[in-house]
Amino acid sequence: MYSLRLMASKNARLFEIAYNLVDPFLHALDPLWRKIGYDRAEKPFAVVEELAKGLFFDCQMCGRCTLNSTGMTCPMNCPKDIRNGPCGGVRADGNCEIKPDMRCVWMEAWRGSEKMKGGGKINNIMPPVDHTIKGTSAWLRVIREDNAAKEKASEDGSGI
Ligand code: SF4
User: Fold this and answer.
1) Is the Cβ–Cβ distance between 117 and 13 less than 8 Å?
2) Total domains in the fold of the chain
3) What angle do CA 26, 126, 66 make, to 5 degrees?
4) Does residue 58 fall inside a structural domain?
5) Ligand 1: which residue has its CA nearest to atom 7?
6) What range defines the domain where residue 88 resides?
7) Is residue 15 a contact partner of residue 8, using CB atoms and an 8 Å limit?
8) Phi, then psi, of 89 in degrees rounded to 5
9) Could you report the per-residue pLDDT of 62-115, keeping only the tens digit for each?
């Protein structure tokens, strides 16, 4: 919902705190996700994620979330799908050149980032959208990838 989306970037620090509380908890439940099976956990995760992030961020379920690096503003609401913005078409009033009634997603992203402790991440270059993972859970993907990387690091360490 557009008004909630604007509210989210305005209160990006609050959402960042919530994210920082929930994220380690979801990571710590890795043994449970493994027991259930990551593939089986995918659907329920995606449903909950779509509901929660759809409400606050107009999430488009791109599969690779950037909210924490883009001022709690979803870049997939940019009509050009720009992951590293803004483009050169921002109107003088800060609105989008394609949707004149909508604030430029990247103007909102900068506003949100300025309120966040980790807001500097907006300067990191994002990889392009991977359309092959559209519709999948970004939450589950990051948990799976982070825990696999940790496991690999500890295996490599034990082999030394
Ligand atoms: S970046 Fe992707 S996963 Fe994150 S809110 Fe936007 S569409 Fe959803």
Assistant:
1) yes
2) 1
3) 35
4) yes
5) 60
6) 2-151
7) yes
8) -105, 15
9) 999 999 999 999 999 999 999 998 999 999 999 999 999 999 999 999 999 999
